[in-house]
Amino acid sequence: DLPNTITLANITHNTDSHTNIPSTLLPYLTRNLHLTPHHPISNTRQIIESLFPPSTFARYNTLPPVVTVAQNFDCLGFPSDHVGRSKSDTYYVNRYTVLRTHTSAHQAEKFRTLEGEGKSGYLISADVYRRDAIDRSHYPVFHQMEGARLFDREGKSGGELVDEVLRDLEGMEVPNVEVAESCALFEEEGNPVQVNKGHSVEEAEAVGRHLRRQLELVVSKVFSEAALAAGDTAAAKEKVKVRWVSAYFPFTSPSYELEVLWNGEWLEILGCGVIRQDLLDYAGRKGSIGWAFGLGIERIAMLMYGIPDIRLFWSQDERFKGQFREGVVKRFEAFSKYPLCFKDVAFWVGEGRGAAAAGGAGGEEFHENDFMELVRGVGGDLVEDVKLIDEFTHPKTGRKSLCYRINYRSLERTLTNEEVDGLQAKVRSQLEEKMDVQLR
Ligand code: PHE
């Protein structure tokens, strides 16, 4: 029942058994919120870009979203059994091609071409795609900004490289942050400097310090803008509390996450690290060492503008769009909170069409993201979140039952009961039709 081809942003691709892009996703591929004038995603991008000198950092903001599995995973060192590769996490165009799940998909090609453009770093902003849960901070399409900075070490001693990196660091502004906690910069177990690939601890340390300085600047800028937008000039001058946490990415080592104290909670802002030397070598940059980071633009925009729900970014309602001006950060004013209406749906898993096909003996595996996508397909942006509220296994029969609560709420109007009942009925019938479950 699958068409033989799929057309994405005007380019037609062959489909196969891997294809899992719902037609409801297609309009998003051409929205380009990060390039839409006045839009908070575009404004946020520009605020962050302003902290990276254009003489050093090339900007790439129009790279198309369809990339190869090699670009998105293989070239970045993702192990072959990494969960990120699964069809339940990633949108496959076909076996060889995906909608990029992160801007890192463009690392290798940009490392290769940067020098020719006379730059030693880049910023890439783009739409990225992930199959995920439904709630106020997750959406199957969002925007990332990735940055990287390379330093030339050819013909230099380790000491000369370190001096050069630190001299560059000294030239940077001092960020208004307080580092509350920090994991060890180096030689953490399981998060090593790539000594076996030719990095000395001193070199990696200098690159890591440069990276941290640059990203602390990003955070201090974002937080002073957020405070000013809220009219709090005193808070805008205060130091923002951050902490560095040891992390893992297949393409950096050592790797870190930067977290920020926001309304009493630690909020993860970005991932980053020292680029693995084998990946640089592979991209033709044997003579360089460097850092990279990736951040989610929505998360930062939500916090700067006080936007409470990620669905709002996609709203075409003038009451949303009309609030923003190019280059201005101002608190979002909620136009109204419309009533919430929830419906529960419970089902036995592995006992629907798959079980029948297998002669009643166990069916297809249940993937929550498939369920989430089905609900999005029916309810679109009228679904605020979906939560698992009950799960049990029958002690005698071993049958497993799940119960999900679907919260329906429009951002733009009050939903009628009939409308929500209609949506819920559709969710139920599609569940029976498309998934291996038995409704209760
Ligand atoms: N691509 C990573 C992500 O999406 C972020 C990252 C980018 C981490 C660059 C390290 C270096 O989670």
Automatic annotation (TrEMBL):
Cell location: Mitochondrion matrix
Entry-linked InterPro entries: aa-tRNA-synth_II, aa-tRNA-synth_II/BPL/LPL, Fdx_antiC-bd, Fdx_antiC-bd_sf, Phe-tRNA-synth_IIc_mito, Phenylalanyl-tRNA_Synthase
Keyword entries, A-Z: Aminoacyl-tRNA synthetase, ATP-binding, Ligase, Mitochondrion, Nucleotide-binding, Protein biosynthesis, Transit peptide
Enzyme Commission number(s): 6.1.1.20
PROSITE patterns: AA_TRNA_LIGASE_II, FDX_ACB
Secretion signal span: none
Domain of life according to the entry: Eukaryota
SUPFAM superfamilies: Anticodon-binding domain of PheRS, Class II aaRS and biotin synthetases
One Pfam family hit: FDX-ACB
Catalytic activity: tRNA(Phe) + L-phenylalanine + ATP = L-phenylalanyl-tRNA(Phe) + AMP + diphosphate + H(+)
GO cellular component: mitochondrial matrix
GO biological process terms on file: phenylalanyl-tRNA aminoacylation
GO molecular function: ATP binding; phenylalanine-tRNA ligase activity; tRNA binding
FDX-ACB domain: residues covered: 336-440
Gene3D superfamilies attached to this UniProt entry: Bira Bifunctional Protein, Domain 2, Ferrodoxin-fold anticodon-binding domain
Chief subcellular location: mitochondrion
Domain Aminoacyl-transfer RNA synthetases class-II family profile: 126-339
Top class in the EC scheme: ligase
Role played: Is responsible for the charging of tRNA(Phe) with phenylalanine in mitochondrial translation.
Assigned protein family: Belongs to the class-II aminoacyl-tRNA synthetase family.
Protein name: Phenylalanine--tRNA ligase, mitochondrial
Species name: Arthrobotrys flagrans (Nematode-trapping fungus)
Organism classification: Eukaryota, Fungi, Dikarya, Ascomycota, Pezizomycotina
